[in-house]
Design brief:
Blueprint lengths: L1 H7 L1 H34 L4 H29 L1 H18 L6 H29 L2 H28 L1 H4 L1 H7 L3 H11 L4 H7 L6 H8 L5 H22 L2 H7 L4 H13 L1 H14 L2 H20 L4 H25 L9 H28 L4 H22 L10
Helix pairs in contact: 2-3, 2-4, 2-5, 2-6, 2-9, 3-4, 3-5, 3-18, 4-5, 4-9, 5-6, 5-18, 6-14, 6-15, 6-17, 12-17, 12-18, 12-19, 13-14, 14-17, 15-16, 15-17, 16-17, 16-19
Length: 404
Amino acid sequence: MNDISLLRNPKQRKLLFSAGLSWMFDAMDVGMISFVVAALAKEWGLGPERIGYLTSINSIGMAVGAAAAGILADRFGRKSVLLWTLLIFSLASGLSAFAAGYAMLCVLRFIAGFGLGGELPVASTLVSESMPAKERGRAVVLLESFWAVGWILSALVAYFVIPDYGWRVAFAIGAVPALYALYLRRAIDDSPRFAEIQKKAPVPLRRRIATVWSGEYRRSTIMLWILWFTVVFSYYGMFLWLPTVMVIKGFSLVKSFEYVLIMTLAQLPGYFTAAYFIEKFGRKFVLVIYLLLTAASAAWFGNSTTEGMLMAAGICLSFFNLGAWGGMYAYTPELYPTAIRSTGAGLATSFGRIGGIIAPTLVGVMVGNAVGIGTIFMLFFVTIIIGALAVLFLGKETKGLELG
């Protein structure tokens, strides 16, 4: 019933879908990288280490972008920063189609990552602040569900475009969101909570950062930084390598794209079940349960020996991991007051992106040194368990609480 009432309110529906489409374009770009590197490995003769560096440089940009955009959004507003980050990432993605070599592609992927990493925490903060308390968590998880749509689109582009037309055309499609930003400029407003804060004197940056680490918020900040690091580390380590892992396990490039597309479809019900449970049982319940089941799925996937097991484990991995992401994005903005919300969320996201920098490179090195896929995925199993324990013991429940 809450889902329906949320979608019946024209203003809330417009904001959710407008921000959701920008989120979809983000996911499409990140997803595209995982498929493009598998094609580039063949065309440019890239080894596992260089593939790892290329995916990591994207995450370095995301780490810098998340911190910068979070800080700027508490100063200049959620809407303006959302628009600028969307423009930066889409233009850099489009220009990636013209990369003449590896170094140039790395530079463009850093810039695209900067815009992309900045947009995500700002969009979730804007939606969180604009919704009533009883629908806030569900709205942010539904926003996150657009990520799955973007991944599905990237998988479709990879399956139908890359084999016949090449990876450059796939990147060129990534320039489309620049046009969408022009529509978004008129379609959405800043959150009412931020508008209220703007009437007062702005809180200086140094004080905002100090408040994030003050006694009142330190426990939540430590928990969020561990949660974000472990989830991002495991996600980018596993999912950016998924098409390549399928090739390593003996499938053709086209067949691996097909299997990853099927696994990606499981992300949508993962989000929708999380959206239902998050307002029924709370944020901590969804995060802990979905993370533990993600860990179990990672161990299963890494040790799968048959095609059927691999597909079943991959579907479970997508379902639970992306449901956990939805819970994390809903939970993060709720732990800070409006004046420092984007700063706190941006810093946690930025620290998490360090995991996204380390994991793809680490997997590249491990694959290059003939470490087994089972061993690599057990590393992710342990990492995700640590994230679940951090939420269980350090997290506080925010279900139904009014934002300060």
